[in-house]
């Protein structure tokens, strides 16, 4: 009960027969001390009336995007951010499609696109719509974007068919809301966390570059975990194909030199985590035009060493972050190399992982890590990158607490 007391939920009611259950959801949330603000799609007003919703929430119900009074009182961008969690119930096939594609043509979809908060959806639709390839695609996209999903359940449907598609019961939705809001003890509120992630690209000529296989997944998972702990989270990321975790301040960069400049602008900070796979070398002078292959000799690439971003920041004296974390991705002598790097680079802890071919770490969703400090080494079991990230952030949080 206490978990939800004092929280604000922005409930978006979609147009489906299950909308009647949203009234019960509002009642249960109010009973738990939650402020519930509501947006109704035009279609949802065919199923439940704005008057019922307003009576239960004790708040004005919002429906039109271009309602000038609302925009003056509180713009839709602000509206999307003044909640602890957004809940879409029922999430119709249409709303899910809009969310997956980033459409914004009414207040509900605009708010969902403008928000920096987590979103929980409770899908509800006919079983054939739920099992259609388009909905399966949209659901996969939403999950990849970090959207939380509860239900749907199997059962008899209003249309007479049987199968998955019934909206989760209000009590189940409450459990999902509690699970999300509970996992966020904001231990890093007011703290600044800087994270580097992904590979860097070093130009050879206007069309070619030096890079590596880093997917950025571990660094992005760390950023997500840092946001969940309430940290101001700056993610300096090389080129990757991942969605920006909600709540993260993203600084996109391409090369190691740009990554260093971005990090230098962000220090000092409380915790700095260097998860990027920075290219060790770059071209001394990238060719201004595309290098032609029909020249007499093979081109020779004159390389120079890139700056070591971690080492520069760890040795930044007055601007040194309170806690500096490095990653050691190795294909051999993992722990010995990690220990050597811990000393050489001057960080407080090295996260060592084996990236040999066949380990599935590069691009994969799981990781086996070892924590190397002056005091010794601790090995963790094989975990998802998100679980690794959550446990690492907990560890870094207690290291910060010990130091301050
Ligand atoms: O590449 P190396 O194994 O030395 O990387 C170890 C750590 O140093 C990683 O945390 C990586 O992000 C960081 N690093 C860096 N700048 C470089 C090379 C590595 O910040 N130029």
CATH topology of the largest domain: Rossmann fold
**Euclidean distance between termini CA atoms:** 33 Å
- How many β-strand runs? 22
Number of helix segments? 14
Q: Can you characterise this structure?
A:
- The protein has 404 residues and is α/β, with parallel strands linked by helices.
- It is built from 14 helices and 22 strands.
- It has helices spanning 19-31, 50-57, 68-73, 76-81, 93-101, 107-114, 127-130, 133-144, 170-182, 217-228, 256-266, 309-314, 334-345, 385-403, and strands at 8-13, 35-40, 61-62, 85-91, 119-123, 148-149, 153-156, 162-166, 192-197, 202-205, 208-210, 232-237, 249-252, 271-274, 281-283, 303-305, 323-330, 349-354, 366-367, 369-373, 376-379, 383-384.
- It has an eight-stranded mixed β-sheet with strand order 13-12-9-14-17-18-20-21, with helices on both faces. The protein has a six-stranded parallel β-sheet with strand order 3-2-1-4-5-6, with helices on both faces.
- Strand 17 (323-330), helix 13 (334-345) and strand 18 form a beta-alpha-beta unit.
- The chain is elongated.
- Cytidine-5'-monophosphate is lined by residues 196, 256, 274, 276, 278, 306, 308-310, 326-328, 341.
Considering the chains and any ligands shown, give keywords for the structure.
404 residues; Rossmann fold; 2 domains; eight-stranded mixed β-sheet; elongated; binds cytidine-5'-monophosphate
